Each structure stands twice: as structure tokens, then as C-alpha cells.
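Late entry, evening session. Most of the bench is empty. Finally got around to the prediction I had been postponing all week. Sequence below, unchanged from the version circulated by S.P.
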Amino acid sequence: MLSFIQYQVYLFLLRIIMKSKNIFRTVDKAQTEKLISRRIALLTIGQAGLFSLLGARLAYLQLFKHDEYSSLSDENRTTHRLIAPPRGNIIDLSGKILATNTENYQALVVLEETGNIYEALIAFNSILPEKQINIKKILELAKKSPKFKPIKLIDNLTWDEFSKLNANAHKLQGIFPSVDYKRYYPTREASAHLVGYVSSLSENESYSNPFAKLTNAKSGKIGIEKLKDTDLRGIIGNKRLEINAFGREIRELNRIESTKGQDIHLTIDRDLQEFCYKQFDGISGSITVTNIHTGAYLALASAPAFDPNKFYDGISNKDWNFLTKNRYKPLINKAISNHYPPGSTIKPLVALAALEQGFDPNKRINCDGSYEIKDTSTKKGTKSFHCWKEKGHGPMNMKEAIQKSCDVYFYTVAREIGINKIAEVCKRFGLGEKVFDNFVEELSGTVPNKEWKKKNIGYNWMIGETLVAGIGQGYFLATPAQLALATAQLVNGGKKITPKIIYENNISKENNISPTLAKFEHLEFIKECLYASTNEQGGTSYRSRLTGNFQFAGKTGTSQVRRISEKEREEGIIKNEDLEWGKRDHGIFIGYGPVNKPKFSISVLVEHGGSGSGAAAPIAKNVMDFIFKNKINIDQA
């Protein structure tokens, strides 16, 4: 046991130890409180600084950036819609419509305005179950399209279907009804090649055409629609709309109207154009009618044709296959996009060339059915060139040779004056070059001469080639539009005219300051020959003459498309009607009227029609009769 003294010492030491702990505890507490107070002060200062910065930023945004962020805020609740302009009309000489626009009700989807496009499309199909758009196809298209660009879901909606979509717009997030314009061609096939058609942009156009941003952008592909595409398409407009969270339109905020395309007036007469087209019922060819004083083309018909309305939304495979496999080639404009040997319709120009060379028109040349030249490549040492009349015409002067279309006469004349003179006169009157400006589908034809053959074929010109050129065969090629132009300038006093298909306000009734292409007396003689060919017995188009107050005159032509061998001539030439269609001759006619006061020229081509007198001249008679009875006073052109 501890002693009393030891116990007292122990208590003393214990008190000292306890007092020391209390001192340390007091010191620690004071230091801790002091540290906490310092941290609170720092935190308070930090908070004050942070709130000061936030306040300054808020003030900056409110005072200095208000307009910018207000605009951004508006964008979150607004959207823009482009307004497609109505395409300009294409109008005939008297104001009748050849191409115009009709309203097209459609539905579009904008990806950036729809939350779930799949659900939106499902909803669309439930509202218009009879339409049932191809959802898979639309989704594939959506992957390739910009989110801001509207995608066309369907068009050609009825008014009831369009109204139903508008009534259910709140269920169709990002899908909205729209009114567009659709191209319409009231004359359908009758003016198809000339007027042309519009269709969707090609891949190249999608980069260069400013209308590519439109949902349903179209461009002209052929004819006037392509030639005047820039003028016809107009200027795009724009409207800004307020929309709700579902993309439904609330109100229109502002609008910049689109500008309608320019109307294009043609020199074509719609009634005459349609009448000309109707002449080709089940046959293939073209009819061209011009005003011989102004150069205005009043008809430029080609048959068969196609319905341009079918191309707007994309032609079906069935229709396309029919057009491309049809032996009559309905896609080709036979007035300017196909060229043919002009046959005997070139004889008036050859006769004019001979007159200019001093050839005596009264000189008689005997036709016994053939013309021979030396040819050492044959067994008999000669080569024969035959007249269409097997037994021959007998002695012929120039007027009789044109009237009865004697080939032997023109073989003789052609050999005497030479190919270069024939080519020079033909070019002077418009053959060998395009009639119109900028029709990409137009061909220029061929007027051959010695230089042309050497350059293009690589061989020297042969005398036999001059003979066949004298009757419009061989290398010679011309379009029906060229033949109508050449005829116009032959019978208008030799005045050079500028061909026109676009009507201009400054078109004068006659161009008296035009250069004269040939001597007046020569041209008057050629007109006498044409008159005899149609209106005097024995002429090749005599059976197609018109009697009465108004007459017309002209020249037939039979354009041979196959070579007739000597063996076939010996055994008997196969008649055209016994040949397959593609081997039959083309029938051609050129003419003018009225005879007493010429105003119109005409060319008629019947593909593989057999002959000019049997196929083309009767059609020319019908057309000229229609003009004399209904269109004789077309003075505006």
C-alpha cells in the first residue's frame, strides 16, 4: 500500500497533468476558431466576387447582346419556307396557251422540324391510308438530304386530301401541306417537240441551278422550255413562320413574294400547229409553215410525238419503253432534229445555179431513162444513172424538167455547172446551217462540195457524186425547217430573212432592206416552174392542186433511202408498198401560196411515205387550204 506522503505526491502530479491538458485544449480551440473565421471570410469574399461577375455578365447580356440573343430566340420558334415562283407561260401568236401552270397540292417533311421521322410518316399514312407513302424509300432519301431541305412525300393530292392534312397538322410533326405549281401543256403531243417539257434537275444541274434548293425543282429539257429556261423560271420568294413545339404553323411573320417567270410569245399559231399535227394519223413526218416576208415560223409540227405532261413527275418505265422502242421515233423532232436527202425538192435551187451560170432554160435535153458516164471499174466501162421514169421523158427544157421532175435533165445540168456552184447556191438560201439559234437538238444538215468530201471523208470528189447531188441524193442532207426557209427566200423576191420562232414586237411585215439573194428575173422563172408543177397537167403535184380564189404551187421530192441494184432493175424494181417500212422512200413537198400574192411557204415530209406526189403533196394541199380559209390574215407575224 502507498504511504500517505506518496499518495499526496501522486495527487499533486495528477492535478498538474490535468491542468496542462486544459491549457492545451483552450489553445487548440482558440486556434481552430481563428482558422474557421479566416476561411469564412475568404469564402464570403469569393462568393461576393462570383456574384459580382455573374451580375456583370447578366448586365452585359441584357444591355449589349439583347438584340442578338433575341434573334436567336426567335429562330428557335420560327422557320423559313421558300416560295417557288410560277413558271412563265408559253403563248402562241394570238395569245393562246401552249404551256402554263396548274396548282399542285402536296405534302413535305422537314427533318430538322420533326422529332421522329418514322413516327411522323406512320401518322401520315394513318391520316391518308389510301395514299400509303413508301416509308422505307423516304427514310433512305432522308439520310442523303440536308436536314433543312424539305423532302416531298407526295403530290397531286385532291382538295379533300389536302384539307384533311391541314386539319391534322398537329399530329404530323415536321410534315406540312404545301401548294406548288405543276406544268401543264394543253396541246399535248401537237406542240411537244417545239415547246418541250420540264423535268427534275439532273445531277449536274443540282450544283449549278439556283432552284436546286427548292423541293420540287424543275428545268426545261428540250425545245422552248430549255431554250428560255432562265427567263421562264422567275425568282424564288421566302416567308418566315412562327411554329409551335410540334412544328405546326402558328402565323406568318413576314413574306417576300416570288416573282413569276417571264411569258414567252412564239410566232407559232396554235390552231395551225394542231391542224398540221392531225395530218399525221399513224404516219411519221413533219410540217413546217413560214411567213415568207418576216421569217416567222407559224407551224413546226413533228409526228408522232409524246405527251409532255407525263415527264413532269417522271415518266413511267412502260411509257418510256414505248417511246424509245417505237420505230417512228416519237422523241425526235423531225422538223429540225432529223435530216434527210432533199431529193427533187432541190431541183429549183440547181436550176437557179444553172441560170446564174448562163445556162439556157429553153435548151432541150433528151431523157431516155438513164444517163451514162465512163467508169473503168465496171465490166462494160460505163455507169448508168437512172431517171425515176423508166422509159424517160423525152426532150425537156428547164420548166418542163421541174414540172415533171426529170432526173436525166438535172444530171446533165449538174455535170455542166459542177458541185461547187450547186453547193454555193444551196448555202446562200439557208441549207447546210441551223435555222434557229440555240436549239441544242437542231441539226445543220450537209451541203457537200469537193473541199467537204476531202476534209470529212478523205477522198477526192467523183463526177458521179455531182450527178446524184443534182437530184438531192448522195451526201446531201437537209431538215424540213431548212427546206421551208429556202423556199420562202426563193419566192419572196430573193430577200434574205432571219428565221424566227420567238415573237418580237419589232417584227415588221416585210424587210425591204434585206440583201437580194438572186436576180429577180431568175426567181420569177423559178416560180413559174413551181406553178406548172402543181397547177398544170403533167405536173408531179397536179392531183393535189387547189382551185378557186387561192392557189398554191410547189415541188415534190422522193428521197431514196436504199440503193437499187442493176439486178433489181433488170428483174423489176420492187414497189415501195412491197418493201418493209424502213426501206421505203421518203415523200417530200415544198411549196408556197397564195400564188398571186405569196405569203406562206411550206415543207412537208412523210418518212418512208413512198413518194412526194403520193404522200406529201396531198397533206400540203390540206394545210394550205386550211390556211387560205382560216389564217390568210395572220398579219401580226
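Two things to note before I forget:
The chain has a mean pLDDT of 87.
The two ends are 150 Å apart (CA to CA).
Will write this up properly tomorrow.
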